[in-house]
Every structure is written in C-alpha cells, then in structure tokens.
Amino acid sequence: MLKNISKDLEDEYNMLINNQKAFYNHSVNVALYTKILLNQIKKDYPSCKINDTLEFYIEMASLLHDIGKVKVPLYILNKTEPLSYLEFDLIKKHPQLGYIIVANNFDKLAKTNEDRKFVEICKNVILFHHERWDGSGYPYGIKGNKIPWEAQIIAIVDSFDAMTYSRCYQEAIPKDEAINKLLKDKKRYNKYILNSLKKAEKELINTM
Ligand SMILES: [Fe+2]
Ligand SMILES: [Fe+2]
C-alpha cells in the first residue's frame, strides 16, 4: 500500500528529511526504540498478544509520527532562538496536520482490512503521540486509556529521544538520566510501558 502514496507527499517528506537531518535522525531513532520497546512489552506482558504484523504496523507508523511537520515552515523547525507564541502554536498543530495528510493520502489506498488496520494505527500514532496519561498533553488533552495504546508507546519513546539526542536548541542527556526523568514524571505516561522501557535500557542505543 505504501508504494502507492502520492508523489507530492513523498517529495514533501524527502524535502524535509534532506533539509533537516535532525528530523530524519529523530524519526529513525523513534522507530528503532519502538521496536526494542515492543519486544520488551511482549516479554513482560504476553497477554498483550502483539503479533509480527501488528508490531510491523506500529514500527512503520512510528517512523511517520511527525509527518505533520512537512506542513511547518523549515525556518521554524530549524530555529535556534526561542520560538514566538505563534510559531510554537503552529508546531503544536503537527499532529492534526499529519492526520489530515494520512486521511487524504492513505484512506483511498486502503483496499483490504489489513490496509485499513495499518491506516488506523498510523492515524492514532500521528494524532495522539503528544497526549499524556494525566491529560496534560495536546491537541485534545485526553487521558489514560482514552489515548490509543500505540500512541502511549510512541509518546514514551518520542520523549526519550527528545532528551537523549542533541538538537540545535538543546544538549542531550544520558539515557539513564532520561529514563529517571520519565519515571519521575510517571503520572504523564503509562506506568506499565515505562517499566518495560526501564528494563530495555541497555538495548536503547541510538544509531543516529
Ligand atoms: Fe511530534
Ligand atoms: Fe517526534
């Protein structure tokens, strides 16, 4: 199905990847950490019944989680000075912008139930990855298990990579420190998924 995605979207995504190395690295790191965390969750909670197909769909969706940023001007994504309120507000729209991109490009390509399942997972990850367990996230401020569980996973690995990867505006911190920060902030995340992240700590090595 992914082979049939429109040329325009592919061009926009490639443009972002080529112009913003940090965006590419972050997307790959998040997908890599998602794979590691899913494997740990499968060991810790076998009743979750995560099969290989579901695991693959979530990993692919995690690679696309920030796709809405193709609609955010590059000067804002690359800005090293503090963002203005309006600029920050535009960045915070990327979950909805990404959802619209997927709805416009993927919905019409989904022919089978499997395709539709993949599109649903992509939409959930993209739209809800900045929601937080205690309702402090965005865009809707939904809480707990109202947040699709695949988005709860990406929320954790996304925050972990944000802390452990150096950006133009922020120095990286060591991974044990990042996990401790997440654990301190545990009211914002699914505690079971956080426990699995802690157990997988040694395997969480970014390649970018
Ligand atoms: Fe994001
Ligand atoms: Fe992200």
Molecular structure report:
It contains ten helices and no strands. By secondary structure, the protein is mainly alpha-helical. The protein has a single domain (2-203), classed as Orthogonal Bundle (Hypothetical protein af1432). Helix 2 (21-44) runs antiparallel to helix 3 (52-63) and helix 3 crosses helix 7 (113-128). It starts with 6 loop residues before the first helix and ends in a 9-residue tail after the last helix. The model has no long low-confidence stretch (mean pLDDT 90). The site of one fe (ii) ion (FE2) has 5 residues, from loops.
Relevant terms:
single chain; mainly alpha; globular; Hypothetical protein af1432; 208 residues; binds fe (ii) ion
Radius of gyration: 16 Å
| Shape annotation | globular
- Helix-strand pattern, N to C? HHHHHHHHHH
CATH superfamily: Hypothetical protein af1432
Q: What small molecules does the structure contain?
A: fe (ii) ion
CATH architecture: Orthogonal Bundle
Helix and strand composition category: mainly alpha
Strand content: under 5%
Termini Cα gap: 28 Å
* Helix segment tally: 10
Mean pLDDT: 90
Enter the CATH topology name. Answer: Hypothetical protein af1432
Strand and helix map with partners:
Elements: H1 7-19, H2 21-44, H3 52-63, H4 74-77, H5 85-91, H6 94-106, H7 113-128, H8 149-164, H9 175-184, H10 191-199
